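Appendix B. One record, verbatim.
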Amino acid sequence: MESKKNILTYEGLRELEEELQDLKVNKRQEIAQKIKEAREQGDLSENAEYDAAKDEQRDIETRINEIEKILKNVEVVDEDSIDKATVNFGCTVRIKDMKTKKEMKYKLVGSTEADILNGKISNESPLGAALMGAKKGQVISVEAPKGRFDYKVLDFKRD
């Protein structure tokens, strides 16, 4: 069974590669130094600094493994080959809620890069999927657990 591709923009790929490099080169060294210093303090069974450093080391190694797993099955979207007449992967899109008249702005990214707090939504999310292929001025409908929402695409651009 083929595992799911991790769809990324070039920007998302670069960010993951930089994070991986930082974790492997800098963070591993920092944590090794913390562990060494904690060991020098003596009895490890009652050493809170040692326990905290080992926990941090475990977290770093877990994140390294996560990133490596993502990068093994990555598909980078060539944004130059995407239809520029419609909303698509990598676009920043401005929409207006037709009911509340509130305007919102989101960048459409793969699920790996999605970060709603920073305005990045997945192309697989209900809103992201509805936006894919939409044109400026078009009204799209999104079915969500709390009901149906209609949004008007005000404009979009490639970053």
